[in-house]
Amino acid sequence: MNRLNEKVLNFLELEVGKKFKQKEIAKAVGVKGHNYRKFKRILTEMSDADKIRKYGKSLYSSNISRPVETGKRGRTRNASKREGKSVEGVLSVTMRGFGFLLVEGGSDIFISSDDMSGALGGDIVKVRVFPRKVGPSSSGKVIEIVERKRTQIVGTLIRNRGMLEVVPDERALRNNIPIMKGKEKKGKPGQKVVARIIEKSLTSANISVEIVEVIGYPDEQGTDFRSICVQFGLFPKFPQNVEKESSELKEGIEPGELNKRLDLRDELCFTIDPVEAKDFDDAMSIKLLENGNYQLGIHIADVSHFVKEGTSLDKEALKRATSVYLIDNVVPMLPERISNGLCSLVPNEERYAFSVILEVTQNGVVENYQLKPSLIKSKRRFTYHEVSDILQKGKGDYFKELKAMNKLAKTLSKNRKSSGSIDFDLSEAIFRLDENGMPIDVFRSERLDSHRLVEEFMLLANKIVATHISLDRSKEKLPFLYRIHERPKEDEIKNFLEMLKFVGVKINVPSPIRSEDFRDIMTLIEKLPEKDLLEKIALRSMSKAIYSENNIGHFALAFKHYTHFTSPIRRYSDLLIHRLLKKYSGKNLRSARPGSDKMRKTAAQCTDREINALRAERAHARIKEVKFLSGKIGEKFEGIISGVISSGLFVELLEFPVEGFISVSSFRDDYYVFEKEKHRLLGKDTKKSFMLGDKLEIRVKNVKIAERQVDFSPVKYQSV
């Protein structure tokens, strides 16, 4: 929404309950004759999007209802107690520019991109709550930035009317930002820069910046990586004291450790990882027992042996909480000497591990288990494709073991799904880059049986570890960190089911919905041509899994007990779990118990940094997508409509996993109206509709790398 939209909203909200003609609104917001056509279109778009209310042909009002007076007590009991008041909290901003105020102990408040007032994700802000709601959520406007989490932004320099300005990468900052005179630092138009925010007022969206670093031109190697690191607060380099601690860690197996661990160095175990991986944190072993059961070993790198609680290494690891995997680079949680060296389960090297040894029946039932620190020596480093080839050909290194693993994994998968576990089989965009980091190809990832094999074993290990503490040792009430996933909200499920009706899927589910009900929906979706799109929408209808000291189970997996144990090289949560397991194996449990406040803060930090990492990874991928399509302007492609809003259509290409936007103004054969409930644009005269899931031939019209924006135009429907 631009400045004119905001003026219209503000004017109507000051006159709640009154109706105004177009000309009256135009006069009030200062619209001149040459802008009147644009103004009329904006009013139509706003009414289509339910931002304002329309009566007849040309009367408009606010969509906020005037509060009903009830004597001295004021509003009716149905009005929210927060309406009109200011609420303080942390601002969380989404990839599309809107956000939510996260209020501790209360429900989140929706903040549109137009109501950010210059605030950024992570800032502590005060918000004035509006009477109107967005779906089930209250909505509001940032009226004060109490504390900035970040003082720097990344953007692209442009020259506007002779003055240098920064086009910010942050979608929360809607307008270009002027550079304070004399603070340009020799930046040139077109270059990416790091700019420090200079506040004119913490209660105003009017800010300026000074350039503190010129990163370089967008097509230069390293520019994308540096831009993402600054925007998301990522630090590729470690502090000197952390590197020093890392360099002082001892290599080799200490003699005193032999008596404390299972000695599995002679056991046949191996790793299976992506071809580009360097940090191998899990290995597997399997053998057939005399009773016909399997002995399955899942061996995880024992990072806790090296990273001790309270050290500089530990504090930095918690600060980062996760490794961030960008397209052509990694920002690790731990220094390379640990992640790719001391802890990585490389072939033919003795390594400290934490092993989960399971006895599993041919039917996939775990009969008993053992959790124990160990010593292992991996015998082989496989890639996923190598394992897939061996399984398909029926021969190759350790085929017998791989075959047994694959058979067991499929049994475990079948059991898990029959219990209600939901399997999202989503592909990812894989990029092929040139020597300068420019994308020359992008394609969808392929999910192989080897991927599923590793996934099933990791899920099982995580489940067993959580069950060990939460169920088998429940009487001891041991503090622990769980991976939890809440049941989807009823309104989200309702909206999802309504949307499915329009693509021909009609299904009734009980309330509240169960995991097995959602699984049944996904089974139906699996057979549809729009499968990929509908799975993404299904995923968006669910809440995100988080870390918590309180175990409520995992809805999507249909597990009552679940944690993260299998990736301590790249996740702090897993490192903590290893420490807790070691502490709880001792006799003095009272001194081993961490405080509940510490567990809560650690859970919140791990969740927060995981979300930040996901956003950074998506933003980096989006940069590569936009750059890829910048070389295909004018070309035609077939796509599928992946989103519908009042102002146009989001379309994902079928040939490449890249999304662009078609403005509703591009359709010149008719006037199209947005029907929100039916997820479509409908032609007023022709009755032609463009609905979610429809295929559409498009042309790449324009690419704006700085804004990370791709504009498509329809090949047809260009004239009446």
Quickly give the structural class. Answer: alpha+beta
Strand content: 25-35%
CA-based gyration radius: 28 Å
Number of strands: 34
Helix content: 25-40%
**Helix run count:** 16
Largest sheet: 5 strands, mixed, barrel
- Give the overall shape, derived from the CA principal axes: globular
Q: Give the low-confidence spans.
A: 65-80
How many distinct domains? 5
- End-to-end distance, in Å? 28 Å
Strands across the major sheet, in which order?
4-5-6-8-7
The overall pLDDT average reads: 87
Keywords:
28% helix, Arc Repressor Mutant, subunit A, 16 helices, 720 residues, OB fold (Dihydrolipoamide Acetyltransferase, E2P), single chain, 5 domains, five-stranded antiparallel sheet, five-stranded mixed β-barrel, alpha+beta
What do these coordinates show?
The protein is α+β, with helices and mostly antiparallel strands. It has five domains: 3-62, Arc Repressor Mutant, subunit A (Orthogonal Bundle), CATH 1.10.10; 86-147, Nucleic acid-binding proteins (OB fold (Dihydrolipoamide Acetyltransferase, E2P)); 152-217, Beta Barrel (OB fold (Dihydrolipoamide Acetyltransferase, E2P)); 240-481 and 564-614, no CATH class; 631-714, OB fold (Dihydrolipoamide Acetyltransferase, E2P), CATH 2.40.50. 28% of the residues lie in helices and 28% in strands. The strands form ten sheets. The protein has a five-stranded mixed beta barrel with strand order 4-5-6-8-7. Strands 11-10-9-12-13 form a five-stranded antiparallel sheet. Strand 18 and strand 19 (330-331) form a beta hairpin. Helix 1 (3-14) packs across helix 2 and helix 9 (399-418) crosses helix 10 (449-472). It is globular and about 85 Å long. Mean pLDDT is 87; it is low at 65-80.
